[in-house]
Write a structure and sequence with these properties.
There is one protein chain. By secondary structure, the protein is of the alpha+beta class. The chain is 46% helix and 17% strand. It has a 7-stranded mixed beta sheet with strand order 16-28-27-26-17-24-25, with helices on both faces. The protein has a 6-stranded antiparallel beta sheet with strand order 8-7-9-15-10-13, with no helix packed on it. A 6-stranded antiparallel beta sheet has the order 18-23-22-21-20-19. The radius of gyration is 33 Å and the shape is elongated.
């Protein structure tokens, strides 16, 4: 751990005073800091102290007593907790003091401080933390007390609100603009005689006007400009240099020089420039926020994610979009399908996997009239549910987007922009000081001050930080409207770097809903046929669906039990018959040596092999063009759990040694890993049903979904099956987006070079610099946004 000065607190860096609290021969400023240090030390969280010399987490020493006793009340808990199943609960807290990397690190490692906390995730921009915890180990009240003890006190009133109120901060900005604008107009009025006269006014009159201007400027500097000082100071305390630092320096220097001139040399100072500078900076901030809002890439892209459900309408099943579901509608949920809304189980036995919500993979058994939360996945036979709460479509895609289990490392481009942004500010400060020194040595103090301030203000690395989210965010929106749904913006960059594409065959290259099927073997009785149909209906696998569709209008018998073995087959009991269906190896314990020409599903009833279904593959429209287009740019591989019947048909697109058949799910994941070890960046496409392991292993996981609600949480992207023929265009467009980001960087670079070059010559006033700075950011963002949109219209 980093050691502090002898009289500084080991934990927070504060002065310990004359009577420090000593533990393990180390000084602490209070018992609170000692407590947190002990927690971190006992749990071996030494990395925390590597983030900062003084992390700045200070603990309240107050005894909480009954302060949070109201959290033991069932009604209060129900309002705060947004998910609970057994002892596992989820809660979201608004914590206003979240402000730096140390905060994020500690809050996302809460499970180390209390074993009852399973998972925590920080949304830095919204200052929110999502926590999954075990109520048998830590109660909601104890959780809040734990957060409060490390100085992250939740604002429970905001936590209860779905829409935190941003109007207050917006009003404060308008007040500050109002004060700065009022002063700017009045100071300019006082300065008009000097401007029009061309010569200094009479000494006494000039002195009075200067002092009046100075008095007016004080609230502008210390109120309207306060955000810049506070931000710069907090970042400096954390040893981080922000873009607000040069702005704060420019304002402070102008104010100090103005003070000196007015009170010690009899000059007029720079009250007009100072008030105009702050006024236009604040107007620029408002203008930026409004423009970015107008140019928004629609962050709520979730509305373009058309999750479909199977609804029972007068005993007839129909597939409809989630947005059309109403309270009290009855839905059918099959094996591995998602629960789209908070519901009550009406029929069947639920085995709900809530790993998508909580990270806990053990299925929870549900019986008739039990409540089921949205986001769970049914892991057994068909169930019927009744919707009890209004559908919140964004809830499901939010779970998908914030899924932490399968996060890949931070994309290199964003890391590069962060580094450039940090170094940029240091370079600008050095240039401004050098410019000041040059003109000061030339004997022109007025120009030296203007050069120093103008360089600090005109320089703006904001475009570096904004180009990525606006370009890639726009790409997400464009893709969403075209039928490709991206998990987050980092996936865009990863897609632009792929070197190989790995395809699953069944349900990806082939169309599961358009197959030719022939049954061969001992004829099935009516009871046996109905049992096979009832069992096949439980599964969403393309081959199971094909068998179910082969028997229209048969009577359905709810299975007594049902199990699906990934990549092999299904078994269960229906219509009082034990049925087993799947691959030859799974059903017959043998492997046929003959050359199969199609996919084959074997079936046995009461342990007696009856025969098999031969299912001819129908390839998706445009698959030849897609593979031909990709073949010229990427290495193509095919891995399938099916037999090699289609090897000859696919040999035109895949080299013989790049087609693997009869692959189990584990084999597929291992194959992806082997390619990655050879230096390949992999895009894996599958149907999301039996490919979860391979999708998780791939650099980019793409699910092709005929019914969008079949998507896998392991997927980075979901492609509507009807848009499969555009896959090559989507991949190509990610490279276009990456080029737009690089071009935005270039534009930003040249703007700064030209602006700084003019400013350092003394030909640019700080007021003009304050006007140009936000315009430059908006222009780069506008370029990135509109260029992406235009490219999308042309290339997609």
């Amino acid at each position: 751990m980093n050691q502090q000065k002898n009289n500084s607190c080991i934990h927070c860096g504060a002065d310990c005073g004359k009577n420090p609290v000593i533990w393990d021969d180390k000084p602490f400023c209070c018992n609170g800091c000692k407590t947190v240090y002990q927690l971190l030390h006992e749990n071996k969280l030494y990395n925390y102290y590597k983030l900062d010399e003084t992390p700045g987490v200070k603990v309240e020493t107050t005894e909480f007593g009954n302060k949070y006793a109201f959290l033991d009340n069932a009604e209060v808990k129900e309002k705060l907790i947004n998910f609970t199943e057994g002892s596992i609960s989820k809660v979201k807290f608004f914590i206003p003091v979240i402000h730096c990397a140390s905060c994020i690190w500690l809050l996302e490692n809460l499970e180390k401080l209390n074993k009852g906390i399973r998972y925590s995730f920080v949304n830095f921009t919204k200052k929110e933390v999502d926590i999954t915890f075990d109520e048998s180990v830590i109660s909601l009240r104890q959780l809040v007390e734990l957060l409060s003890s490390i100085h992250y006190i939740p604002d429970l009133s905001q936590s209860l609100s779905d829409k935190p109120d941003d109007k207050q901060s917006y009003k404060k900005l308008l007040y500050k603009i109002g004060v700065a604008g009022f002063v700017f107009i009045n100071v300019m009025t006082y300065s008009l005689p000097a401007y029009f006269n061309g010569e200094p006014l009479e000494d006494k009159l000039q002195s009075v006007l200067s002092i009046l201007s100075y008095i007016l400027v004080i609230p502008v500097v210390f109120y309207s400009g306060s955000d810049y000082y506070i931000s710069a100071f907090k970042n400096l305390m954390k040893k981080n240099i922000s873009i607000d630092l040069p702005i704060a320096l420019g304002i402070i220097v102008l104010f100090l020089v103005t003070t000196w001139e007015i009170f010690f040399t009899g000059g007029s100072g720079y009250c007009d420039s100072l008030s105009g500078l702050i006024f236009f900076l604040l107007v620029g901030k408002w203008y930026q926020s409004k423009t970015y809002e107008a140019l928004s890439f629609e962050r709520n892209y979730k509305s373009y994610f058309p999750i479909a459900v199977t609804k029972i309408n007068k005993q007839i099943e129909e597939s409809i979009l989630l947005e059309k579901i109403e309270v009290d509608d009855e839905l059918i949920i099959r094996n591995k399908e998602l629960i789209p809304a908070d519901s009550v189980l009406v029929e069947g036995e639920g085995q709900i996997d809530y790993s998508f919500v909580t990270g806990e993979s053990n299925p929870v058994l549900k019986k008739t009239n039990d409540f089921i939360y949205a986001g769970g996945r049914q892991m057994g036979g068909i169930i019927k549910i009744r919707v009890k709460k209004e559908v919140n479509q964004s809830h499901l895609t939010k779970l998908w987007n914030q899924d932490k289990s399968y996060e890949k490392p931070t994309d290199s481009l964003k890391t590069l922009s962060d580094k450039l942004g940090q170094r940029f500010t240091i370079v600008i400060i050095i240039i401004s000081i050098a410019g000041f020194a040059f003109w000061f040595m030339k004997g022109d103090l007025h120009k030296a001050i203007f050069v120093f301030t103008s360089v600090l203000i005109i320089a703006c690395p904001c475009a570096l930080a904004l180009s990525i989210p606006f370009t890639f965010g726009n790409t997400m929106r464009i893709f969403g409207r075209a039928g490709l749904y991206i998990k987050n913006t980092s996936v865009i960059e990863k897609m632009s770097h792929i070197s190989a594409v790995v395809f699953d065959k069944t349900g990806t290259l082939t169309r599961p809903n358009e197959t030719k099927i022939i049954y061969t073997g001992e004829p099935l009785s009516t009871n046996e046929t109905e049992a096979v149909f009832s069992l096949a209906k439980q599964s969403t696998h393309p081959l199971s669906s094909a068998v179910a569709d082969f028997y229209p209008q048969l009577k359905y018998h709810p299975p007594e039990h049902f199990v699906e073995v990934a990549g092999r087959g299904i078994f269960g009991k229906a219509n009082n018959l034990n049925v087993k269906m799947g691959s030859e190896e799974y059903v017959c314990n043998t492997v046929r040596n003959g050359n199969q020409k199609s996919s084959v599903v074997f079936v046995s009833v009461n342990d007696k092999i009856k025969g098999f279904y031969t299912i001819s593959n129908q390839y998706r429209d445009g698959f030849e063009q897609v593979l031909e287009s990709l073949k010229s740019r990427f290495k193509l591989y095919l891995i399938s759990g099916d037999n090699d019947a289609e090897a000859k048909n696919l040999s035109a697109f895949f080299e013989k040694d790049k087609m693997l058949f009869n692959q189990k799910p584990a084999d597929k994941a291992e194959f992806i890993k082997t390619l990655q070890q050879k230096g390949e960046t992999i895009l894996m496409t599958g149907d999301g049903l039996n490919d979860a392991g391979a999708l998780m292993q791939a650099d980019v996981a793409l699910t092709v979904a005929d019914k969008v609600y079949h998507f896998s949480p392991a997927s980075d992207a979901v492609l509507e099956a009807g848009q499969f023929q555009r896959l090559a265009n989507f991949i190509r467009f990610t490279k276009t987006s990456l080029n737009i980001v690089k071009l935005s960087f270039t534009i930003s670079f040249f703007y700064n070079v030209i602006g700084i070059s003019i400013a350092i010559t003394g030909n640019l006033s700080p007021v003009i610099a304050a006007i140009l700075m936000p315009i430059s950011s908006v222009s780069v963002v506008a370029f990135a946004t509109f260029t992406t949109r235009m490219a999308g219209r042309i290339k997609l």
